[in-house]
Amino acid sequence: MMTLQRGWPPEYPKLETERIYLRPPMDADNVPWRELRRRNQVHLQPFEPTWPENALLDSFFRRRLRYQQKEWLNDRNYSLLVFTHDDVMIGGMNINNVSRGAAQFASLGYWIDKDHQNQGYMKDVLQLTLSFCFSFLRLERVNAATLPDNTASQRVLQRAGFIEEGFAKAYIQINGIRQDHVLFGLNKTEWQK
């Protein structure tokens, strides 16, 4: 069995507001993560790739954690979990497909517990994530995409400064079907701290 990386989580800036904090996943998150995902499966499934049959098993979380650690250490993807200040896990944020060289951009993917929607948490999550992307990771641009009917997610992105930039047909497999997406982007020069 492969062991987890030593020194995890890595050093990173403190990512917190008065209400929430973000940090990389750790071993201790196994049970809370699986329970949160289980409670939200029906809520999240229409917005995510099809979950494998073992998605809520201990072994799945451990494989996922090893993968996330490797991706973080190789500067390819950065996974963060979202917690309230009383240490309740309420969601996740992924900074995916980091492109270096002339590109210097990445794409966001995120989710939040159904019981914590419409309370302004994602506004805080995006604020912290953009600061992490533009200041710590030194990216020049961040992209995001939503299903056309996911107006709540579109509003969150627009409030964070993202601009709707296009439409992609059959862009990503969501819930077992390649689906169209509305494309959003935010350049560092247009970001308001």
Can you walk through the features of this model?
Helices cover 29% and strands 32% of the residues. The chain has 193 residues and is an alpha+beta fold. It has a domain at 15-139: 3-Layer(aba) Sandwich (Aminopeptidase). Mean pLDDT is 93; it is low at 1-6.
- Architecture of the domain at 15-139, CATH level 2? 3-Layer(aba) Sandwich
Strand neighbour order, sheet with most strands: 1-2-3-4-5-6-8-7
Which range best describes the helical content: under 10%, 10-25%, 25-40%, 40-55%, 55-70% or over 70%? 25-40%
CATH class of the domain at 15-139: Alpha Beta
Say how many strands there are. Answer: 8
Main sheet: strands, sense, barrel: 8 strands, mixed
Please give the count of helices.
4
Question: What string, H for helix and E for strand, traces the elements in order?
Answer: EEHHEEEHEHEE
- Write the CATH fold name of the domain at 15-139: Aminopeptidase
The CATH homologous superfamily of the domain at 15-139: Gcn5-related N-acetyltransferase (GNAT)
Compute the separation of the termini in Å. 43 Å
Average pLDDT level: 93
Beta content: 25-35%
Shape: globular
The secondary-structure class comes to alpha+beta
Unreliable stretches, pLDDT < 50, 5 or more residues? 1-6
Cα-based radius of gyration, to the nearest Å: 16 Å
